[in-house]
Amino acid sequence: MVTDIIKILFMKMEWDVFRILNHISDEEGILVLSGENAKIDEISVARFGEYLKKKYLSKGVILVNRFERNMINHIKKNTALHIRIISLSPIRLKHFYKLHCVKPFAGNIAFTYINTPKDNKLGKYLEKSELDENELVCLALFRLGHV
């Protein structure tokens, strides 16, 4: 129990330091690409601008696994100038996700994890509903209200 609390505090501190070092403000939307489903990641990148508009945000940051070179190139080709790309280790991305699951630290962040944790709603919708990946991103992940 105590070690879990210490881990959470460490992850929160890691997130705060990361935001400061990368100049990420509360006025920026954040999209974290998990790499678990390439199609969902690609659609999320394509629809990220709509998410920013819905949240009344003028800028965005996409956090991506540094080993996903194809995805990084895809993002560079398919995003606007007001969206920054930051590549991180998969462990760090997962730390941020775990922290957000325990205590949501921002209302302007979206994660594309579908297999983590086991009861992840995004993964359940993909598996058990008739929604395709585009509908899933628009309606469940970004909650845009339209496809």
Structural features, described:
The protein is an alpha/beta fold and 147 residues long. The chain has one domain (2-141). The protein contains 6 helices and 4 strands, in the order αβαβαβαβαα. It has a 4-stranded parallel beta sheet.
Provide the structure class: alpha/beta
Biggest sheet overview: 4 strands, parallel
Q: What is the strand arrangement across the widest sheet? A: 3-2-1-4
Unreliable spans are: none
Strand tally: 4
Shape: globular
Helix content: 40-55%
Topology (elements, then pairings):
Elements: H1 2-21, E1 28-32, H2 38-54, E2 59-65, H3 69-78, E3 83-88, H4 90-102, E4 109-111, H5 121-128, H6 133-141
Parallel strand pairs: 1-2, 1-4, 2-3
Helix pairs in contact: 1-4, 2-3, 2-6, 5-6
For the structure shown, list the relevant keywords.
147 residues, alpha/beta, four-stranded parallel sheet, 4 strands, 52% helix, globular
Summarize the structure.
This protein is of the alpha/beta class.
